[in-house]
Amino acid sequence: MTMTRIGLPLRFFLILIATVAALGLYSSLAQADELLESEPHENETLNHSPESIILTFDEPLLLEPGVNSVAIVNEEGERIDDGQAQISTYSKRTLVVRPAPGYEIEGDVGVYYSVTFESGATLVNAMDFTVDLGFEPPVLKIDRRSPPRSSESIVLWTFVILAAVALFTTLGYYLRFATDNSRSSVDLPEEDH
Questions:
Q1: What phi and psi values does residue 129 have, to the nearest 5 degrees?
Q2: C-alpha span between 78 and 95 (Å, rounded)
Q3: DSSP letter at 96?
Q4: pTM of the model as a whole
Q5: pLDDT band at 28; cut points 50, 70, 90
Q6: Would you tell me how many other CB atoms lie within 10 Å of the CB of residue 129?
Q7: CA–CA separation, 74 vs 45, rounded Å?
Q8: To which H or E segment does residue 181 belong?
Q9: pLDDT tens-digit profile of 172-183?
Q10: How confident is the model over 114-133, as a mean pLDDT?
Q11: Neighbouring residues of 58: CB distance < 8 A, sequence distance ≥ 6
Q12: Cα–Cα distance between 99 and 84 in angstroms, integer?
């Protein structure tokens, strides 16, 4: 029985491909099955009671009734949602739940969710936010005026432009005279008599 030897470069290449494939598989598994975004955001403080809680995941959710659930719980531990978590009509990755009819959310709120993805994976987790009706969010003032130009920057740009002109002039002189090609390309050739 003869054994085929794989050359060192080919062996290195195969190990490199296997490593890259393993890292790609690991990173895709490590990032899968998680909450990407929520409205309200986790740990956010609102000054109004939200009409709905929206959870967006990184994978499509399983569409079977009853496999996905969300519970909104107030500070006293009472469930305050309508019990009807629904997958959004515009995205199979988004789950929507509303507070119980007529209930105004206030205080610290916990959102507990258990979801099953099309891939078969299940995620059970929680997030929280706060509703403080007297809370005034900070107002960000953005100054859109451009800062005044300093005389130093004007002097610097003038110097850069003059240096570029000097460089191109020197380069043109070198190409024209130093290479003994002083005749213009538009000059007509001299006729020999």
A1: -155, 175
A2: 21
A3: E
A4: 0.56
A5: very low
A6: 20
A7: 14
A8: none
A9: 777 776 666 655
A10: 92
A11: 31, 32, 33, 34, 35, 36, 93
A12: 10
User: Rounded mean pLDDT of 76-100?
Assistant: 91
Euclidean distance between CA atoms 146 and 140, whole angstroms:
18
Residue with tokens 């975004």: 37
Phi/psi for 107 (5° steps) reads: 90, -160
DSSP 124-163: EEEEEEEE-TT--PPPPP---SPPPPPHHHHHHHHHHHHH
Give the residue-averaged pLDDT of 88-100.
92
On whether the CB atoms of residues 119 and 62 are closer than 8 A, the answer is no
C-alpha distances (whole Å) from 125 to each of 34, 100, 136, 142 are: 9, 21, 29, 37
CA distances from 100 to 104, 108, 115, 181 (A): 8, 16, 21, 90
